[in-house]
Amino acid sequence: MQIKVYTINVKLPGWLRRTLVIGVVPAVILGICAVVYATAVTGQPDFVAGTSLSASSLNAHLGALQTQIDTANGKLATALVPDSNGNVGIGTTSPSNSLHVKRPDGNVLAQFETALGGGNAWVQMTIPGRSYLVGTRGDENGNFTVFDNTALADRLSISVSGNVGIGTSNPSFPLHVNGAVFIEGDNTVPLTIGGARLRSNGLGGFRGLSIDTYNGGFLNDRVFIDGNGSVGIKTTSPQYALDVTGTIRGDNVTPSDRSLKKNIEPLPADTLGRVCKISGVSFEWDRQKLKESLARESSSQASTKVPEVDGFPRTPQIGLIAQDVEKVFPSLVETDTKGVKSIHYMGVTAVLLEAVKTQQRQIEELKARVRALEEPRSAARAAHVRPARQPSRSHTVGSERLLTGTSGA
Length: 409
What we know:
six-stranded mixed β-sheet
């Protein structure tokens, strides 16, 4: 087949001009294909130098070109197809975008490669006011990068080892973030870390952070931090900076250095008398009342969680009644917003210590008084001791039994 080259002077319609603006390669391909079709199919070129070509005529030629170009391996009818909207299809005759690539076998659709060592292989995407480059930068060991070409900053990098970096071009961890992280979602979108998970607990619009643990299944709300910063352990309605449902054990001590205190005063002299007005009691927790109390606390924070009372022992307990303590030592009792009273048991220790000391002083005073009373009597008894009586002896003379010894007369 002989290919002849002709000079073509045509008036191209707008859609074709837009198509050819896509790049040099499509324009060259269209030009070659037009010449090949004109000579090979018709034998004579339909384009005459110095004449114009209407849009309808050009469309007819391009349509014929789509269906009549053959090679030894089969048809190339969909190799490069422009439509009347200026869209170009590769592998499809109905492109839906400016460039529409389709491959029937599901393999690589497109490949971008640079032969320059250390060069970059970018695909640029631009909108008014913003431009991004997506690809690999030759000077960074082949990391895949999303580069903000407007702000001149790396937005996303994936290293050859699989580490993902956000805000950094050299991620050192599977997920390496340079900057703050915000994870948005409700309690059904947790962040799982090994055998635990973090989730935002947005119950009823109330925001908090829950930590769940795993033991054959996730145990929810083992630790909960509410919107005010209060921490609850095994409760989602903490009323204090640290609110624990259950038993606490630890080796921590409370700071008590004199230099940290002021207005230091001894306890009242009648501390022992006050202590005597408090009674130690045995009791069991009223679980129904506990549920009602916790439910009131939960409702005040718009929580729909079922109050947890499992941390309160079911066995008989020993303790004090807060109302009794408040009458004699009001500073040892605190009342929350719901009227529930709690005792500062650490303070009770100091009260009992002073009571014992007072009681011990009283004991010592009583012992001294007893000694003072007993000493004169002991001296008097020692001065008037009578001789001890001798035991009686009996003798038998004849048939009579005689008694001899000291007479008491």
